[in-house]
Amino acid sequence: MMKTTKEKIEEIKINGYQLDFGNVFNHAFENYKKIALYAGLMIFVFSVLIAILIFGVVIFTFGVSILNEKSLENLKNENFSGIFMLVYVVGAIVLSCLLSPFPAGLIKMAHCGEKDEEFHVSTILEYYKAPYFKELLISTIIISILSSGISSLLDYAGIKIVGSLIAMTISFFTFLTIPLIIFGDLKAIEALKSSAIIVSKQPFVLLGLIIVSAIASMVGFIGCCIGIFFTIPFMYSMYYAIYVAIIGIDSENEFE
To answer: Are 195 and 203 in contact (CB under 8 A)?
Structure first.
């Protein structure tokens, strides 16, 4: 009888797990080659649409005058009022929530690539529906409040380095939340706790994998900056490869 995700996590709590850096990296790279072009194109299209949306909201809210050099200078963090900072943080959290199913779709695309199944735009948008959207939304709100909220407050207080480190630490310990929700069928709170438990068992190996994949993703800046859209998918292939190596995906917990 196959073990459930919860049972596997309980075992990890007690016994931990082994993770081979080279095997996980190779798995992620092979998976990336299958999804790079299509996933990169989707990221590019959605980035353009989001940029247009944000630009439109800023112009609608502050007027065209916000684009002049003096107005942009006044928007530096040190000139933010408390109210403006609150609006900024709330806006960032709302945007993160609206986009939360998008990375889940990219990880699902990595799974489809692994199984040599076709994937389309609908794959990216798969988790904008129940029951996953609610759990992704809740987890994103919690992570955003913790990371963006604390980081922005510390930035406002002039302790920028500490704020950034806290935000990165929170992101690191919760990076498996999405695959635990969409593959393991865990609720948001369970997924957040489980991600922290899993990462805490092998923090240095996982940190090394994340750093290497982040550097690989940034290679797209070399030569032509647009290439970044086609190297970013490597991060999602890495998340998928790490999850498969630690928890695995079987027929019982796979996309009920």
So the answer is: no
pLDDT digits (tens, 9 = 90+) for 178-235: 999 999 999 999 999 999 999 999 999 999 999 999 999 888 777 566 778 899 999 9
Cα dihedral 90, 182, 171, 223 in deg (nearest 10): -100
Neighbours of 5 (CB within 10 A): 22
The pLDDT tens digits of the residues spanning 57-115 come to: 767 666 655 555 555 455 554 455 556 666 766 777 788 888 899 999 999 999 999 99
CB atoms within 10 A of CB 93: 18
* Cα 2 to Cα 7: distance, rounded to the nearest angstrom: 10
- Name which of 220, 232, 233, 138 is nearest 178 in CA terms: 138
* Nearest to 43, CA basis, from 236, 198, 252: 236
The dihedrals phi and psi of 207, each to the nearest 5 degrees, come to -65, -40
Note the helical H segments in the chain: 5-15, 21-62, 69-74, 82-99, 101-114, 121-124, 132-144, 150-156, 160-173, 177-182, 188-201, 203-218, 228-231, 233-246
CA of 63: how far to CAs of 51, 55, 79, 142, in Å?
Answer: 17, 11, 19, 32
Burial 30-68 (b: 16+ CB within 10 A, else e): ebbebbbebbbebbeebeeeeeeeeeeeeeeeeeeeeee
